[in-house]
Design goal:
Blueprint lengths: L4 H17 L3 H16 L2 H5 L2 E3 L11 H9 L3 E7 L7 E5 L4 E3 L5 E3 L14 E5 L2 E2 L5 E2 L5 H5 L13 E5 L20 E3 L4 E3 L2
Parallel strand pairs: 1-2, 1-6, 6-9, 9-10
Antiparallel strand pairs: 2-3, 4-5, 7-8, 10-11
Helix pairs in contact: 2-4
Length: 199
């Protein structure tokens, strides 16, 4: 049965990406505003100082409205950047710092012109999901960047920071996703319609 999992994951990924890309700019903006309201109401947001977000592409739910409000409330927002020395790992830099396009064509902080932070220096990390289930199963783009970067959270001591919060449109929920042993568990999933506590 495990033989079918990669194909299943690939077909789910393709289907969800098509659904996301079909949203109009107005639908995306409305989803972003609803997402922001839910994120701002969470206790972990009130306590957080360093928050990592992402620049939405490929139809991902956009945390930009949230970022603007968080910055207004004097939170420090950061963006991920491909780590130059640790393959398939991320590190993080100021949201408003100088950016370059990485090898995937995605804008990211320029490591040469920003002060970079490691994942354990963050309080909260908002990461994009391609699909998710109620149990916290998640599907990303398949690169494993977040799993490798935050693998230290898999040691059973989830009291340590950061909190990992997956973001997605509500329609990206599926009944159940296969979980791999390298998947780092999320603390919660937030969509434009609800908050799902996991951990």
């Amino acid at each position: 049965m495990n033989i079918n999992i990669p194909q299943e994951r690939d077909s789910i990924r393709q289907h969800m990406r098509q659904l996301r890309m079909s949203l109009s700019p107005q639908q995306q903006l409305l989803a972003s505003r609803k997402l922001s309201q839910l994120l701002m109401s969470q206790p972990w947001f009130q306590r957080a100082h360093n928050i990592a977000i992402y620049l939405a592409h490929d139809g991902e739910i956009d945390p930009r409205v949230f970022a603007d409000k968080a910055l207004h409330r004097k939170k420090l927002c950061h963006l991920p950047s491909l780590h130059p020395l640790k393959q398939n790992h991320l590190w993080f830099a100021d949201y408003d710092g100088p950016r370059i396009n990485n090898k995937y064509g995605i804008a990211e902080p320029d490591p040469k012109r920003n002060q970079m932070l490691n994942g354990n220096q963050l309080d909260v990390v908002l990461l994009p999901l391609v699909a998710f289930d109620e149990q916290g199963g998640r599907l990303g783009m398949g690169g494993g960047f977040y799993d490798r970067t935050f693998a230290f959270l898999n040691n059973g001591k989830r009291a340590q920071k950061p909190k990992l919060i997956g973001l997605a449109h509500h329609f990206q929920q599926v009944a159940q996703l296969p979980v791999e042993n390298w998947d780092v568990a999320l603390d919660a999933i937030v969509t434009d319609e609800k908050v799902i506590p996991i951990f």
